[in-house]
Design brief:
Order of helices and strands: HHHHHHHHH
Number of helices: 9
Distance between the termini: 40 Å
Mean pLDDT: 90
Number of strands: 0
Helix content: over 70%
Largest sheet: none
Low-confidence stretches: 141-145
Structural class: mainly alpha
Shape: globular
């Protein structure tokens, strides 16, 4: 999987951004990626499917637990769940982990291509960012000379 971090910015030639701009830019990239991936993944889904998936995003306790009980009742023994649980920051609510787990399981059933969609959208976004690198970073000392 990918990481939106300093290495990501370095790969795009944006490592010279000031630290406060780096974090803000990474947050913007994450939001934009989330929006674009969500839009792409929603293509072809029914209203019922969209509503079901939104219940995971909204952390609807009743609907999340009902979906898990119906589709993955042995979730506690699923390595992907235990990995999520172990990787969650201390103090993360169980519902947040369950909702994240349910959303990934739901995507694997309803949009099994979701990983490819994420990778494709990320590559498109990286190209767009790279094409606008000079506008993002501003003129360099060499360009100004």
């Amino acid at each position: 999987m990918f990481q939106l971090d300093d290495k990501f910015l370095q790969d795009l030639g944006l490592d010279q951004l000031p630290p406060e701009q780096k974090q803000a830019f990474l947050e913007h990239i994450y939001s934009e990626l989330e929006l674009r991936v969500g839009t792409r993944l929603s293509d072809g889904l029914s209203d019922e499917q969209m509503t079901e998936f939104e219940s995971f995003v909204d952390r609807d306790n009743e609907k999340v637990r009902a979906w898990i009980a119906a589709h993955t009742p042995d979730y506690q023994n699923d390595p992907s769940y235990t990995q999520m649980q172990a990787g969650a920051p201390q103090g993360t609510e169980e519902l947040s982990i369950l909702a994240e787990y349910a959303s990934l399981k739901w995507l694997s059933v309803n949009r099994p291509d979701y990983r490819q969609v994420v990778a494709q959208v990320l590559e498109e976004l990286k190209k767009e960012i790279a094409g606008n690198r000079d506008a993002i970073v501003g003129p360099t000392d060499q360009a100004a000379a």
